[in-house]
Amino acid sequence: xxxxxMDEEHAVSKAELSVHLLGPPLKKRxxxxxxxxxxxxxxxxxxxxxxxxxLVPSAMTSVLTKILxxxxxxxxxxxxxxxxxxxxxxxxxxxxxxLILGPKSILHLTIPRGIFGALSIAFYYITLHxxxxxxxxxxxxxxxIITASLSWILGVETIRTVMVIGVIxxxxxxxxxxxxxxxxxxxxxxWTTERTVGFATGGLSALFVSIAYLCVAKIGDRAxxxxxxxxxxFTAVLMSVPMLAIGxxxxxxxxxxxxxxxxxxxxxxxxxGAQVLKVRGFQxxxxxxxxxxxxxxxxxxxxxxxxxxxxTLSLVKLAGAxxxxxxxxxxxxxxx
Length: 336
Hints:
The chain has 336 residues and is an all-alpha fold. The protein has helices at 8-17, 19-22, 41-44, 47-68, 74-94, 107-130, 133-140, 143-153, 161-178, 181-184, 193-219, 225-246, 258-284, 287-295, 297-308, 315-334.
């Protein structure tokens, strides 16, 4: 089994030999992460359908995580999801005799991508434990705005007027979602210590995933989407072990009833499915569609929280989520 590819030219030839793992190469970028011969090939060749389909397992992951976090801590969930995904992708790749972790020349990008991606998902799960599901997802989807801002600060991209407008709309949206007491007075939601910490961890989650996205953008076509996913999952598992050992943020359980075990497996499968579909969708769609479709989960999360988790549904929060989606559209459209 080939774990390392020594140079980029060799990496391309390896990918071509592993088409049944990586799928048919993209015309422009040359990479994919799905099966070439499959009943789902029609789905796999349509980016918008992949992104829309990803909303289902993504929402399922958030709901099941919210339920499971009543008993299991964030790093416990990260550990099991990482192990499930890493083992699944490894088993899948074994059928072709290949496992490509990318050229060594981009280790300075793949390692930070894995670290910041793993930190992001861990802080996101902590946020879901502390906040209503809609608020947690709203904070996470600040990441396109943060990514655009970091790109401008680092000189990677030139900021445009439409992007500034998008940032303003998104900030207005997050204010409506947060409803701070100094602006909303008695109409505001109650701000407890738990809610304050939740917004802090949610902001860190968005920041970390933005840094991870910048690493992915810098990697470009030098690694396949499956390589990027594997680095993320391996890092998540390695990072979780010491956190579980010291009991941070609380003691791990590692005890499951039959129903909890089924829910954990469903969460792991849904999480991996959502990741694969989103990566494929991002590869095939332009920036505006790629950023806008996943952000629809904002509105969906409030509806699910109200219908499934008995959380309060507020028109003010829905309005905030809508403004954030408009902001994401503006920022993504400004990158064209």
